[in-house]
Design brief:
By secondary structure, this protein is of the alpha/beta class. It contains 13 helices and 21 strands. It comes from Jatrophihabitans endophyticus.
């Protein structure tokens, strides 16, 4: 055991947790010292761990040796957290390219391939899939980490936790599963994605006395609709806590309040990136919107997207992650391209970690520009879902007719607005709120209840028709020059 290990519970490198340990059910914290210590003191210990992780990666990973060598640095050059900011970030495209060249796990795998015990990964729908190789040590570390965060959400061994997301390559399902299992709860891996499964989910929740639900916010709202259609009041299912990942929502006030009200439950946000599992290192620790950065699990810096240097608290930027307990595929300064704002640690929250009051509320890649304004879909979601008579789904359509972009939001209503006059006023009200929030006009079109398909996973609500317009414009321009000398 290192000297620092005596200062924080079970803090060793490589990680070695006592799998039999669990706090008393009435304990607020899983590890009270690690979770409540002075941030400056924790930073000293985190720097020492970062140095250990970098030395480990330097000695075991050709990927990191080559990347850092090209930048003219090695682990011994990092003597402060400010020095660490100069370590070059890792891009997801680099990981995919490295795996293509060094199949199947890439040259950033730091253990022999035979030590990999679990394989998860991306779907590969937008390019080459990325394989996540997890050895036994990391599997146990992730389980312990998730158990800690779920404990902070108030989940206890007496709970029955239903996993309501696909049990496939998706890391979210398995991370929630092994965290609940390590915590000592009963785990019900029901999954999602099969036709007709949602109604069966509702019946099983009632039959088995499910008290905790995990999935995406979109799927929870879909389940509520399915339950009501079957004559079952979601509030009577007895779900006392719901925690989410996979998409913005659980820290968006309108979505959070909608879920909490319809199920009469408490709502918790979590989640960052599968590559940096334990992805619950961004996880709620109280009954307020937002998530804590559990810095002793994954070191998080919110950085300027251009300079990639750490921003002061109160700033908006993109998180850069460094895993502190992964030995198979450690991520060291992985650029997320997500968007968030962070606040300084406050002991009043019960844990002295930095805080993201709105969680991860978008991806820089998802941002679109309409008439010079930067717009994130989550901002539209919040306005629309907060509206009275909202019918449960909507679509965001960006199109171009001539020289001007047009933003149209198609919104389901619940059928209770009366005639044409009521619909017109309803759309005008939502449109006015969107203009205030977005800084650009949006045309709101009402659509009938149940117009849009519901999802059992992540909602995809944005349709950008400008790409079609651009391709048609390009082809027309090309045709007009044919035969011109």
């Amino acid at each position: 055991m290192t000297v620092t290990a005596t200062r924080m519970e079970q803090w060793t490198w490589p990680p070695a947790y006592d799998d039999d340990y669990r706090p008393a059910d009435d304990a607020t914290h899983w590890f009270p010292v690690r979770e409540t210590m002075a941030p400056d003191r924790r930073d000293e210990l985190l720097l020492a761990r970062i140095q250990e992780v970098m030395a480990y990666a330097w000695s075991t990973s050709p990927f990191y040796r080559a990347k850092w060598g090209a930048a003219g640095l090695e682990p011994g050059d990092v003597r402060t957290l400010e020095d660490f900011e100069r370590v070059p970030v890792v891009h997801k495209d680099e990981l995919r390219a490295d795996q293509a060249e060094h199949e199947p796990y890439g040259s950033y795998l730091c253990v022999p391939p035979r030590d990999v015990r679990h394989v998860n990964g991306t779907s590969g729908t937008t390019g080459r899939p990325t394989a996540f190789g997890v050895n036994g040590r990391d599997w146990r570390s992730i389980a312990n980490a998730h158990a800690r965060v779920m404990w902070a959400m108030g989940i206890r061994p007496s709970d029955t936790v239903l996993i309501g997301s696909p049990l496939s390559l998706y890391w979210g399902s398995w991370g929630a599963y092994i965290g609940a299992e390590r915590l000592g709860a009963t785990v019900f891996p029901f999954g999602a994605g099969t036709a007709g499964q949602s109604l069966r989910t509702v019946h099983w929740m009632r039959q088995m006395g499910v008290t905790v639900f995990y999935g995406t916010p979109s799927y929870a709202l879909h389940l509520a609709e399915v339950a009501r259609d079957a004559g079952i009041d979601p509030r009577h299912l007895g779900v006392r806590r719901m925690f989410f990942s996979g998409e913005p929502g659980a820290s968006v006030p309108s979505i959070r309040e909608r879920i909490a009200t319809v199920f009469d439950t408490r709502v918790y946000d979590s989640g960052s990136m599968a590559e940096v599992s334990p992805w619950m290192h961004l996880g709620a620790g109280s009954d307020e919107p937002g998530v804590l950065c559990w810095q002793d699990l994954v070191h998080t810096d919110v950085c300027d997207p251009t300079t990639l240097r750490r921003l002061p608290y109160g700033s908006e930027g993109t998180p850069v992650y460094t895993t502190l307990e992964r030995t198979a595929q450690p991520m060291i300064r992985l650029l997320s391209n997500d968007l968030t704002r962070w606040e300084a640690p406050s002991a009043e929250r019960g844990r002295t970690y930095p805080f993201l009051p709105r969680g991860i509320y978008g991806r820089i890649d998802d941002m679109f520009v309409v008439r010079g304004e930067n717009i994130y879909p989550s901002a539209i979601d919040e306005v629309v879902m907060r509206s009275d008579n909202y019918g449960g789904e909507h679509r965001i359509v960006i199109s171009r007719d001539g020289a001007m972009d047009e933003l149209v939001v198609q919104v389901e209503h619940d059928g209770g607005l009366g005639g044409e006059g009521g619909l017109t006023q309803w759309c005008a009200t939502i449109s006015g709120r969107l203009r205030t929030v977005l800084g650009v006009g949006a045309k709101v079109l009402p659509v009938a209840p149940q117009t849009f398909a519901r999802t059992e996973f992540k909602a995809r609500r944005v349709i950008d028709d400008r790409d079609l317009f651009r391709s048609l414009e390009a082809s027309t321009a090309g045709a007009s020059t044919d035969g011109v000398s």
